[in-house]
Design brief:
Number of helices: 14
Distance between the termini: 57 Å
CATH superfamily of one domain: Alpha/Beta hydrolase fold, catalytic domain
Strand content: 5-15%
Strand order of the largest sheet: 1-2-4-3-5-6-7-8
């Protein structure tokens, strides 16, 4: 399928690809067909499976610093979610529904005999990982969540609507002020850019909002190109239905150990969402990564890899259910 985009996508022939699957960028990549779609994935190592799930404007390449490190001790697996490169792109105007990705992940883990898995998810991928633990608990051993945008836990849509922020003001005034600021700085310019088809501005707006201007200026061209090649999924998510409902009791019932990972320089709205998860999850730990923002596994891979390995090493087996409140 042709990947409709406003940017020049790197020609597979220029990278020595054969059918988009054997270039330097996507070398040693396998495929699995699940739920009517074909997903590219890469793995390294043996042992308990540790599976990485990327977020917006990303694909399996975002985890390139994790695969060898984690793969030295475990069966490390990275994959490109439905619609992410080198998989087929989303059709113009179609919605990118989160629960489809949840079912894809569960089916992929079963198809490649990688259950139960330790799931490591960034952003949208972290939300998908959390929902997989809720809807398909049999395939999950533990969770490492890098700032999942769990807006429904605060009664917010993605992007938040003004009336929702006003309602939040009555319940959590300090948190509401954070999201009111977000609504001014990020949402109008992002929506405007996406609706007029200006993907370059939309991409820059997103990166600057979650990582800061200085960090965006330091992004290598290869990372910006990766974002360009996957920007259609962000458009579909932001302009679509958004994430599904998520109830507090669903989160309280998550029965696997969870590590919440935040960046020292991450934006306040993502930290507030992580705070709410920390309040609700029954088996939870939290760690802050120095010199890092929302893409912490790219910003400071050494610290993130150590955190993952330490956590997974302590949770190799399925945990006992959390004790009932007295």
């Amino acid at each position: 399928m042709t990947r409709p985009t406003h940017f020049p996508v790197v020609d597979p022939a220029d990278e020595g690809e054969a059918h988009g699957m054997t270039s330097t960028a996507f070398g040693a990549t396998k495929t699995a067909t699940v739920n009517g779609t074909t997903l590219a994935y890469r793995e390294q190592g043996e042992g308990a499976p540790v599976v990485f799930i990327h977020g917006d404007i990303s694909d399996l390449r975002t985890w390139q610093s994790q695969l060898p490190s984690v793969g030295a001790s475990y069966r490390a697996i990275t994959y490109s979610r439905r619609y992410a490169r080198p998989n087929d792109d989303i059709e113009p105007g179609a919605d990118d529904l989160m629960l489809t990705h949840v079912d894809d992940l569960a089916a992929l883990l079963q198809a490649i005999d990688a259950t139960p898995a330790h799931l490591v998810g960034n952003s949208w991928g972290g939300f998908i990982s959390l929902l997989t633990a809720i809807r398909h608990p049999e395939v999950v051993r533990s969770l490492v969540l890098e700032e999942p945008p769990v807006l429904p836990l605060l009664g917010l849509s993605a992007p938040p609507r003004p009336v929702e922020v006003l309602s939040l003001l009555l319940r959590r005034p300090k948190t509401a002020l954070v999201f009111a600021s977000l609504g001014v700085r990020l949402i109008p310019p992002l929506l405007s850019a996406l609706r007029r088809g200006d993907d370059e501005t939309a991409m820059q707006t997103f990166f600057r909002a979650v990582g800061g201007d200085d960090r965006y200026q330091r992004l290598p061209e290869s990372r910006i190109q990766q974002a360009r090649e996957n920007v259609s999924t962000m458009r579909a998510q932001v302009l679509g239905a958004g994430p599904p409902p998520l109830g507090e009791e669903e989160v309280r019932d998550v029965g696997v150990p969870t590590l919440l990972v935040t960046g020292k320089q991450s934006p306040p709205f993502l930290l507030r969402l992580t705070d709410r998860l920390e309040e609700l999850l029954p088996l939870v730990e939290r760690i802050e990564i120095p010199d890092a923002s929302h893409l912490m596994h790219e910003d400071n891979p050494t610290a993130v890899n150590k955190a993952i390995l330490d956590f997974v090493g302590r949770h190799r087996e399925r945990p006992m259910s959390p004790p009932l409140p007295s």
